[in-house]
Write a structure and sequence with these properties.
mainly alpha, two-stranded antiparallel ribbon, 5 helices
Length: 92
């Protein structure tokens, strides 16, 4: 799984006011990977305000300026996928 692409999709979902877990949850993308990358994004300053319990994100935070910049720097990826099913294939 491409972690950088997964991080991009998490940030994009938050930018669109969506829950990244709901958007990404599938058999192809383990929930642990989603939560792990969500934690990474918060530790690195791309997201603030995640609420955790038992290594699970129950409430997703919001983007920081650094998170917005990551999306801007990788805006070419927005055209790389169109639908949720294709999105899961794109992350692999």
């Amino acid at each position: 799984m491409d972690k950088k692409k997964l991080r991009f999709v998490i940030l994009k979902a938050l930018d669109e006011k969506k829950d990244p877990f709901i958007e990404l949850q599938s058999e192809e993308i383990p929930e642990q990977d989603i939560f792990e990358q969500g934690g990474f994004l918060q530790r690195e300053g791309y997201i603030i305000g995640n609420a955790y319990a038992d290594n699970t994100i129950y409430i997703w935070g919001r983007l920081t300026e650094q998170g917005e910049q990551f999306l801007e720097d990788n805006k070419g990826w927005r055209k790389a996928y169109k639908g949720l099913k294709e999105l899961r294939d794109w992350i692999k």
